[in-house]
Structure formats: structure tokens, C-alpha cells
Amino acid sequence: MDKAEPKIKELLEKTKKHVVIFDSCQFTMRGLTLLCERHAGWRMCGTADSFSQLWQLLARQRVDLVLCGIGKRADDFSRLLNLPDYFAGRCILLTDKSSAVLRAAFLSAGFDAVTSKQVSLTALDSLLYYTMYSSPEDRQAERVATCYRPLEREVLSALLLGKKPHAIARDMGGSYRTVSRYKQNGLKRAGLNSLNEILACQKNYVAK
Length: 208
Hints:
Protein name: Response regulatory domain-containing protein
Low-confidence stretches: 7-12
Keywords: DNA-binding
Number of domains: 2
Radius of gyration: 19 Å
Organism: Serratia rubidaea (Serratia marinorubra)
Mean pLDDT: 89
Order of helices and strands: HEHEHEHEHEHHHHHH
Largest sheet: 5 strands, parallel
Distance between the termini: 57 Å
GO molecular function, one term: DNA binding
CATH topology of the largest domain: Rossmann fold
Structural class: alpha/beta
Number of strands: 5
Pfam families: GerE (PF00196)
Helix content: 55-70%
CATH superfamily of the largest domain: Response regulator
């Protein structure tokens, strides 16, 4: 065996890109898997249809890109809002239909891209490739101005879980006015006027 061969294999392993897919739709997971497998050097590390499965996959190995759908549980919106805060890799959210509200809300949560499952395969493939290989500097520049601040994210996440403002204030050790301010600042950062815009989208997914 060539002495350089193990080093070459190690280098190739390091340059591989690892992908995880999270979605409640088996057809979507299959389609995304086939799309990702077209890229040389991309390795599928598993699929998940629940957040507990997703956390297990993320904890087990290095993951470079997570492709997410929006689940059917009432707490999925809240969990998705926090995903980019816990996962250092790249995240793309796929919505059932194009939605300016969801795009604004989740880009501000730190997702690298939010797009519809109805886009063409060519457009989706280009988005996957660009997101996977964009530089950390470019990603940081795109995120810094519009990302929720930690307490804004905490308040919005709690509200999407159905918690009342007074209960959130009690848990945070603050006041109702403080909770309201963080909510409004977060919505303003995302370019939204009301939490009801997000809640209406949430209802559409959970009701299916």
C-alpha cells in the first residue's frame, strides 16, 4: 500500500459534506435524499421525522447542512425558531408553499435560506450548492443585521408555544412591558407587524 494512501483517504473524509434531512413527509425526504446524492462528496447522515431523532443525529456526528421541513406538531415552530441557535452548521427551511411571513420569521431566526417545496429542482439544487459552499464571512454578513437577539428569540419562541406574556415575564424575572418590548423588537427585526402573522401560518400547518 502506498504510504500516502491513508493520508489521502483522511483528507477526502475531511472534505466530505455531511447532510441530515428533517421532515414529516416521507416523499420529501426521499426526493431530497436523491437530490443530495447527485453531489459528489456529499454524504447522507440520516433522516429524522421528529426533533428527538434530529438531536440524536446532530449529536452523533459532524453535520454540515440540515434540510428542514415544518412539522405538524404545535411546538414545531418554536423548536425550529431555536434550531440555528444550537446548530453551528448550515440550515435550510422548506415550506409547503411560498410565504413571505415564514421567510422573514425564520431568516431572522438564523436559517441560511427559506424556500418553498414548489420551486423547481434546478433552483433548489442551486440553492443547496450555494448554501453548502458559501463562506462563513458571507453567512455572517448576511445574518448579523436581521437575526433575533437572544431575549427576542426566547420571547417569540415561548409565545409560539402558547405561553401567556405574564407567565413568560415571571419565568424571565421581568415585567409584562419587558416581554412586550422584546416581542415587538423581534417582529420589527424580521419586518413583521404582528405575531398573528406567524400564528396564522402555524395554524395552517398544525391543522393539516
